[in-house]
Write a structure and sequence with these properties.
Elements (H helix, E strand, L loop, with lengths): L13 E5 L6 E6 L6 H17 L2 H9 L1 H7 L1 H12 L3 H26 L2 E4 L3 E9 L2 E5 L7 H12 L3 E5 L5 H12 L7 E3 L4 H9 L4 E5 L2 H12 L4 E5 L5 E4 L5 H13 L11 E5 H17 L18 H16 L3 E4 L12 E4 L6 H4 L6 E7 L2 H8 L4 E2 L1 E5 L2 H9 L5 E4 L11 E2 L1 E2 L2 E2 L1 E2 L1 H6 L2 E9 L5
Parallel strand pairs: 5-6, 5-8, 6-7, 8-9, 10-11, 10-16, 11-14, 13-14, 16-17
Antiparallel strand pairs: 1-2, 3-4, 4-22, 9-20, 12-13, 15-19, 18-21
Helix pairs in contact: 2-5, 3-5, 4-5, 4-7, 5-6, 10-11
The structure holds nicotinamide-adenine-dinucleotide (NAD).
The site of nicotinamide-adenine-dinucleotide has 32 residues, from helix 8 and helix 9.
Length: 466
Amino acid sequence: MTTTQNTPKTVDATLVSTDPFTGEEVGRVDVTPAEAIDAVIDKARDAQQRWAETPLAQRIETLKAAGPLLAEHAEELGELISREQGKTLAEGQGEAAAVAGGIAAELDRIAEALSPEALEDEHTRSVLHYDPLGVCVAITPWNFPVLMPHWLVLPALAAGNAVILKPSELTPLTGQRYAELLNRVLPDGVLQVVHGADAQGKALVAGAVDLIAFTGSRDAGRHIMQAAGKGLKRLILELGSKDPLIVLDDADVEKAADFAAMNSFRNCGQVCVSTERIYVHAKVADAFMDRLLAKTADMKPGHYTDADATMGPMVDARQKAHVLAQIEDAKAKGAKVLAGGSPGEGNLMPPTVLLGVTHDMDVCREETFGPIAAVQVVSDDEEALRLANDSDLGLGGVVFGEQAHAAQIARRLQAGMIGINKGIGGATGSPWVGARQSGYGYHGSREGHRQFCQLRVVSEAKASPD
Ligand code: NAD
């Protein structure tokens, strides 16, 4: 199979989605003209009024009916993810299966979070109601083309809102298919899809909507925040990151290196909580590097139909050029390339290991979003912490070390989600949350589900005892 380097996809009247490995067309969708977006919002407003009158329990039951449909189509949806985005079939199907399999339990948690709550003191009885907000816009990225829409669309709908989803222009077919499946159980107009790129995103943000839930890059998040400011619109921003991994002198080095390889290279490094910087104590640095390089050599980039492939290509030529520019900058400033480093065929980018990176290099400061393990050897914990916290981003962070020692370091790491001897994923019900410029707001969790609501507090005096 031949590889082709995709140029960034053009957005005219039709959006052509292509396989990032072969360049072949996967399918096409009509772009929503920016001037048609007000009509989409009007339709959402109209549908939302009836949907909001549907009791919460009934909305939850309606949405639960989408579970079996998503499960029935999970394989097909998973393959579509891989075709459009390039990730391996295991990754694509894993994403689709996680969404389909988790929907019923997630809806139960949403129902619990949105049920009225009673509070009472000596004089007053209050009830906290979680009302719908109105029309919500979900603008999503391409790297998890079903999971990212799902994390926003499901709680927003359950809360009684109408939702307008704008999937990434790089993965429109997956977003479209996901919405089609949900729409088989939803009333007309409650969930609509707008296709296009930033022009359509901007028109939605400028429209008469009540909440913009955005997952994507920091730059786009900054624009959206400015634009939403005019109407003081509510915002949820889940943005990029530069997650550090600290390997302490008492770490299980093999486990730390295995994690570093997995979390630097999965989905070709195109994950918001990828390991983007590695600080390893000098005492264990040699052993860590040996194992990291061995794991890197085991990686096999390829097409999703290649059963041996352990990672896919970059999503497009622009993303690949960005990664290569960071490697060139790091080399020019003294980093050593111990694996990979040169461009692969088409959009393929080999897993790359850099040693001796420093904070004057772009690779330590700007999100890479590509398969680079960038390593800096440190002499003690304080140096590791100082460097790990030297970023204005802070989605996740991971520490490997003896449990109590690692926990002590983790307490001082400035990030929204921290893993100790594991990735950042929290127990079921934990929020997905960023610190600093990685955004604000939550995915999942009680706090997250309530973001899609207007809280209304109704209080009455308690009868005074005679
Ligand atoms: P992107 O910001 O380029 O695009 C995201 C979405 O926003 C797309 O649908 C795009 O069309 C739209 N858009 C772009 N500019 C816009 C504007 N000015 N107004 C309105 N809409 C606009 O991001 P991407 O390249 O699709 O995704 C990669 C980024 O997403 C990375 O930075 C990654 O870290 C981040 N991300 C974050 C999380 C998280 O949970 N924090 C999860 C996944 C991805």
